Amino acid sequence: MRSRRRLFPVTIFSTFLSILGSSFPGDAAAQSITPLCTPIVSDLKTVVTPAQRKVAGEKAIPPITDHQNGFAWPDSEFGVFRSEQGYTFFASDGAHHKASNKYGSVTRTLGTLENPLGTAPPIDVIIRRNNDPQINPNYPTYTYLGGGRIFRVPPEEPGRGNLVNVYHAEINTTTSFYSLLGLAISYDDGLTWTDLGEIIRLNQRYETDLAGFDIGSPRLVASPDGQYFYIYFPDWIANGTTQPTGTNVSVARVSIAALLEAAFGAQPHAAAFKKYYEGTWSQPGIGGLSTDLNPDADYAGSPNVAYDSALERYVMITDDTQTIAYAESPDGLAWTLPVLLGSLGNNSTSADYAVPIGEGTDPNVLGERFFVFFTRGSPQGWPENSVERFTVSCQ
Questions:
Q1: CATH code, domain carrying 240
Q2: Residues 102-125: tens digit of each pLDDT
Q3: Domains in the chain: how many in total?
């Protein structure tokens, strides 16, 4: 087992959040878009300690089976919902699970924005293979399968109330791993999950001798016209070598109606996504080419996008294990150049799985201020990892 790390170059080294309380000018005001927000960072705090993680792992349901690595949570970005009882969080426990013989899972916790782990036992379950093995013949090849980027189906749509999960899967190479994205569904609020198959593969096809490349763990984001789901990811454009030449951020889409019909029809499966390439949605999600939406960005990594109702724009938070950055877009396609929110300044610790979370009725919608949660990786590994968050507000 390993704590997954973003396999991207580190660009800036300074003290993480040493700029706390400072504002960031839009000197990278980019492309043809002027940023509406000058982000101000404040209130860095720990919301889950290593001791709390240890206690949670001891009471997880079902009991954890990887006692060497323990409860390796959260090994992905959070997916979050709000209810009358508080907040429901989903993320991966990156340890090994005997039930699937894979690392990774979908772990549900019930907590608050002050403590996403809460006090109830974590529900830590695997993504099971589809009853029809032809839905995803690649399932046995995955060495990692997990994530928690959840979409809850609205009451008026097919599959109402059920959950759709964008999962992160990995296939080992001789030196690292090749990663991809797929979908899973739950009919019982996250107690069990069933695989629907893959939706996004890199343009570079899998080879055993490839260097590592992390596609991230993004969520489904509704398009401005409400007709499509967008999904954002870095893509490896094939270059004839085993070393990656990645995009900073690419995007694919699928009709919302098509995704729900496929997921909750008579034979549940994943609908086909199309990558955006040179102005059209012309390339297949599995292995197609894609355009870099922000090729001049100084900061990249794993892109996580949410709509900001105060700005009436989409906000992207990226991390590359050492830096966390901010960008915005009026339409989900044209983006401002990202500005730095903070960086660590060394490689002994990491800031992984950064994700924006709102404090309104729907935490997947941001407002005049919002939180960024991330996993603080320790040199001692998972036993000493913590979950932290900071606040972003706009000047």
A1: 2.115.10
A2: 999 999 999 999 999 998 999 999
A3: 1
57 SS3 class: helix
Phi, psi of 20 (to 5 degrees): -50, 130
The answer to whether position 319 is within a domain reads no
Query: For residue 74, is the peptide bond before it cis, meaning its omega torsion is within 30 degrees of 0?
Result: yes
pLDDT in tens, 155-214: 988 899 999 999 999 999 999 999 999 999 999 999 999 999 999 999 999 999 999 999
In a domain, 365, yes or no: no
Q: What is the domain range of residue 241?
A: 50-306
Position 3 in a domain: no
For residue 316, give Cα distances in angstroms to 22, 140, 305: 20, 33, 4
Considering the entire predicted model, what is its pTM?
Answer: 0.92
The amino acid sitting at 52 is Q
**Rounded alpha-carbon distances, angstroms, from residue 385 to 125, 154, 270, 291:** 21, 35, 34, 35
Distances (CA, A) of 299 to 22, 78, 252, 273, 369: 19, 21, 21, 26, 22
Does the residue 152 lie in any domain?
yes
